[in-house]
Design goal:
Elements (H helix, E strand, L loop, with lengths): L10 H12 L9 E2 L10 H17 L4 H19 L6 E4 L2 H11 L7 E5 L8 H4 L7 E5 L8 H7 L4 E7 L11 H10 L3 E5 L18 E5 L11 E5 L45 H15 L3 H21 L3 E2 L16 E5 L5 H10 L2 E2 L1 E3 L2 E5 L6 H12 L1
Parallel strand pairs: 1-11, 3-4, 3-5, 5-6, 6-7
Antiparallel strand pairs: 2-8, 7-8, 9-10, 10-13, 12-13
Length: 395
């Protein structure tokens, strides 16, 4: 399925997906939780996996380390299945920033090269590129209209010295979902690599690295994947592994692995694990893996349909109370669907941070970002949650 395809599921299956996920989200018992674009609550499977690791670590120490390692590898395989990659193309990292830096520091830059990104990117998808400026790298920032990218502007920003095009799939501020199929084509036409910051969509929006020729991506698990902070997944297209200089290498980057005394030379593993360096965040990756297993039980098209149904309803109700939406929700002339789980809005005459405080007191979680309020709905959110949100906003 193309990355911007509108999900086509019937209401019955969408409702079943919503109910199945909601049953595994303890937070729903107390909160109308609309803050998944910040830090999501843990799913019940993730919480159990972390608790199991903690109990084993306290009672058995490293006598079960091989079992822990096997669970980490299961997380890798589930992440690979989620994006249509090979398990050997998946690195398990600490956060999205680490994944971006592995690419930014790994490219063999030459003075006069440039990287193209967006003017309103989250700092993690800007600072690693700015950090290359002492090498003579130019950082070109393409302006957007509340997240909406004019593809012609992107095309004009690229030239034969563009080495990387790096964009967020979904903008954190307004929730605009980029046409990454078109962006990948523009990047590759310029001879550049395409990096995708997928943190605001991975796990709940359809994505296949085979259908969309992404070169690298990274996404932390503590947002839409319902995992803990400090556990992330990254994808490195296999044919591009050797196009990056490996940084942060350690015992887990090389071969052979079994006998540390035999590691006397730097022989990188022929897989994305070369970028993992040292010890894994075992409890974090166990928790993330458990949440990914939960999410992948349902087709991603159904999860996306549930989210977009809820955010469409929220937009309708927000307009009814006089809110002004900053988020683009209409299909593009090309047919591209810019919707995501994020909706940014203002309530004229009201301070976003104060409104957020009142909402939290009423049991409704949302964010204040860039001078606006921001709600981010997951597939388990219901129409009743939207009612709860609107009532809190009226207050």
């Amino acid at each position: 399925m193309p990355a911007d395809a509108q999900p086509t599921t019937d209401p019955a299956t969408t409702a079943a997906t919503r109910a199945a996920l909601r049953a595994e989200m303890p937070v729903a018992e107390r909160w109308a939780y609309f803050d998944h674009a910040a830090v999501a609550p843990l799913s019940a499977p993730a919480a159990r996996a972390i608790a199991d690791w903690s109990s084993q670590a306290a009672q058995q120490g490293d006598t079960v380390w091989l079992e822990w390692a096997a669970r980490v590898e299961a997380t890798r395989k589930t992440a690979a299945r989620l994006v249509g990659a090979g398990a050997d193309e998946i690195a398990l990292l600490s956060n999205t920033t680490q994944g971006i830096n592995l690419v930014a520091e790994g490219v063999d830059w030459r003075e006069g090269d440039n990287v193209v990104t967006l003017a309103d990117e989250f700092p993690s998808n800007l600072l690693p590129w700015l950090n290359q400026q002492p090498k003579g790298v130019e950082v070109r920032r393409v302006a957007t209209d509340r997240g909406r990218l004019d593809l012609d502007d992107l095309r004009k920003a690229c030239d034969n010295r563009t080495r990387v095009v790096s964009v967020s799939w979904v903008g954190y501020s307004t929730g605009y979902r980029q046409d990454i199929d078109a962006i990948a084509e523009i990047a590759h036409d310029a001879g550049a690599l395409f990096f995708l910051d997928a943190i605001q969509g991975l796990g709940v929006l359809p994505l296949s690295v085979r259908d969309t020729p992404i070169d690298f991506l990274a996404a932390d698990g503590h947002k839409w994947m319902l995992g803990p902070e400090g556990a992330a997944v990254a994808y490195f297209r296999k044919e591009n592994l050797d196009r990056l200089h490996a940084t942060g290498v350690g015992w887990n980057s090389v071969t052979p692995q079994a006998d540390f005394s035999q590691i006397t030379e730097l022989v990188l593993r022929p897989s994305a694990t070369r970028f993992e360096g040292g010890s894994a965040n075992m409890p974090g990756q166990h928790g993330l893996g458990a949440s990914l297993e939960l999410l992948t039980r349902e087709p991603t098209a159904r999860t996306a349909a549930a989210i977009l149904e809820t955010t469409d309803l929220a937009c309708e109700r927000l307009r009814e109370i006089g809110a002004e939406l900053a988020t683009h929700r209409s299909a593009e002339p090309s047919g591209h669907d810019p919707r995501s789980g994020i909706v940014a809005f203002t309530l004229p005459g009201r301070e976003p941070t104060e409104v957020r405080k009142r909402c939290l007191a009423a049991g409704v979680a949302l964010s204040a970002r860039s001078g606006r309020l921001r709600l981010s709905a997951h597939a388990y959110n219901t129409a009743d949650d939207v009612d709860w949100l609107i009532e809190a906003l009226r207050g």
